[in-house]
Task: structure prediction
Amino acid sequence: MSAHTTPTSSCTTSSVYTVSTCSPDDSSDGNIPSEDRHRDKRPRATVPYDQDVIRNFETVIKLHKQSDRIAEGVEYLYEAAQTLPRLIGTFIQYDRVLVDGLASDGKGDEDEDNNDAYGGDMKWNMHWQVRYNFAVIKEYLPGFEEHTEYLRQRPDLITKLAKWMTTVAGKARGSDITRIKASAFKISKFTDPALQRKANRGFKHTETGRLLCPVKLLADFDNDPEGFCRKVYNVHDDRPRVAGGDWPAFMYDMKLYIPGKLKPGFLKSQILLDYFKLVFTGPASADTSGHQTKVKGKPSISRKLQIRAVVITSIIYVAALVRFVLNAQNEWADADGEWDGWDFTESVMTCMLCDTAWQEELTEWYTERVYGGVSNDMSASSEPSAYELCMREIEAEQRERAALVGDANASGSQ
Result:
């Protein structure tokens, strides 16, 4: 993921330890009592690992409050985990990605042969999901890449990490959805005040119905908007198909769209671009009124993570969130009627795998429009903001206090 700059970590490491792993012959001695295995003098392989890094992994998955994570010096790991869905998407099987990724890590080009087990073609199947997503996890989760060999010996920790990543990803998605909801009426350019209530959207209303309508069915929709929406909403027997592989109109720049062609204009709508800016660079950058107002608050995701380029999975991530905001569902769900988010992701990513030039053109188009200029939030200076510096001070002070308490307890027990 060379398009991104890896976030730096405030964590410091010290002692390096080793973990013993049984030689291949030991695997057949599962019935040997533990004391006999302990006395076994056969050579064992050792895997070096940093005790502090592993301890931080084991600590962060247990802490639910930010104050506790800061006090323990592991907030950086939580922030890194929040980054992942914004880079690889929301439809991720973290357990499968970690297990299969660790199993194939380091095999290089030989890993290509494993694609046969998943279908053996250029379809966005589990092989490609594991390969792509595992690479991002290694890059963005501090300490993970250096400990892949050790983590292969810790399936218990991998299971817990996968569960924790899934939970954190859900919270990050919820935060982004909340941000999108707040600006949905304005960015989507709704005209009916009734659409301020999410429950009135989707195919219950023709405005949102047209945005959600598959672009190739727009002519049918425009011939009878009410009838089209009614058939979809009521799941009529002769309803139009609105599935994950039927890309909706809101994702298209209709000035570029050519009837009968699905590539021109796809993922280039002003609505989708504005929502993308809202999520990654903040409300000011998504303001299409021409007013460059300064928005107070925390730094944007792009500034905080030093992101300067767009990847295709980030675009798909935002597109999925926007579709949810446009529908009438009260709570997030992977599916909405016949539309399925996993199918949507698979359909788009399969096309991008088969046409890398198109993928590169799309990401360059977004990068230019999102990061091409200097905005209020993304200044030319890479210096940390006052907020960022203050948070570092707070974390350092809380770590110092925790260390003093630990030393005092240790002295008292002697």
